[in-house]
Design brief:
Elements lengths: L4 H4 L16 H5 L2 E4 L8 E2 L6 E2 L8 E2 L8 H11 L3 E6 L10 H12 L4 E6 L8 H6 L2 E7 L5 H7 L2 E4 L2 E4 H21 L3 E8 L8 H11 L3 E6 L14 H11 L4 E3 L10 E2 L7 H4 L8
Parallel strand pairs: 1-5, 3-4, 5-6, 6-7, 7-10, 10-11, 11-12
Antiparallel strand pairs: 1-13, 2-8, 8-9
Length: about 290
């Protein structure tokens, strides 16, 4: 049986303050998050991911347009006017948040203007270890690292290429580098006092029987929570099935042997604004801004 979430939260200070680090129904319905789409580029290729600018699709990697770093504080201020329960500013794309310096510059400005907001960074982890000090210095308290496999052969099937310090790597060398950097990055963030959640995109036939190994490995590195995100079939994985409810439940049970499992993910857009799954104010927030296309 599952332990009571209240009793098992590894970070009770975030319960009710960060919707995606809360375990109770009340906890993730009582505070909001703003996703600021400031990060344009990515340094790896995930075969399920197609970044896009539009108003309609509700999925990660999509935003109405980019927000410039020097507009970030103004967008946060307007978002707080629209949705005063926002307690978290997250940067989750539309590309990788550490591939360019936009996210850390935006976070530093936001942290100076709104020191009580929780800054939350999502990354693929390729550059997390080497940027861990500036990440924490920019006021980031919670970090989400997407780790889809810790077996290089599987990882190479999911993200076949990376660009690392100007070099393009493919196949197993790319996967080995990415995995090693993700684990080192989680260790470094935790050593500096950050809280780490791992997102794993659950891809039937690829990593659905591998999530326990992922959970065990990232738990040993210091991660506190795992979020198994069901694949939204798309891009090069358009013909793969989404996980069934039974596959999702089994994977969650296997991951739960090692980590607290977050199971309320709404697979949000990179410009979401409000309480995940309940409210979204992004249309009003960006009403004066044309969609970029
Ligand atoms: Fe897309 Fe994120 Fe993968 Fe980059 S790391 S390709 S933005 S899913
Ligand atoms: Fe939270 Fe999931 Fe939305 Fe990220 S994508 S803000 S983890 S609900």
């Amino acid at each position: 049986g599952q332990r009571r979430p209240e009793a098992s939260s590894p970070f009770p200070q975030l319960e009710g303050r960060h919707p995606c680090f809360s375990l109770t129904a009340e906890g993730h319905a009582s505070s909001g998050r703003l996703h600021l789409p400031v990060s344009p580029a990515c340094n790896i290729t995930c075969r399920f991911c197609r970044r896009d600018f539009n108003r309609d699709e509700w999925r990660p990697g999509v935003a109405r347009g980019l927000v410039a770093v020097d507009q970030a504080v103004d967008v946060v201020r307007r978002a707080l006017d629209l949705c005063p329960t926002i307690s978290v500013v997250g940067i989750a794309g539309p590309g990788d948040t550490l591939c360019t310096d936009h996210a850390l510059r935006a976070f530093a400005l936001i942290h100076a203007a709104f020191p009580d907001l929780i800054n939350c960074l999502s990354t693929n982890g390729l550059l997390l270890a080497e940027k861990a000090e500036p990440v924490i210095a920019a006021g980031v308290g919670t970090v989400t690292v997407t780790v889809n496999a810790v077996d290089p052969a599987l990882q190479a099937e999911i993200s076949p290429t990376i660009t690392y310090h100007g070099r393009r790597l493919t196949g197993l060398p790319a996967a080995e580098r990415l995995i090693a950097n993700q684990i080192a990055g989680i260790r470094r963030i935790v050593a500096l006092g950050g809280v780490v959640k791992v997102n794993t995109v659950l891809i039937p036939g690829l990593n659905d029987r591998h999530v326990e190994t992922v959970a065990r490995t990232v738990a040993a590195a210091g991660a506190s929570m795992i979020n198994l995100i069901p694949l939204l079939p798309g891009h090069e994985f358009a013909d793969r099935p989404a996980p069934t409810a039974a596959q999702q439940a089994r994977a969650q049970a296997e991951a739960a042997r090692h980590l607290t499992v977050f199971s309320h993910c709404s697979r949000c857009r990179a410009d979401a604004c409000g309480i995940p799954g309940l409210t979204d104010y992004a249309d009003a927030l960006y009403a004066a801004r044309p969609a970029q296309d």
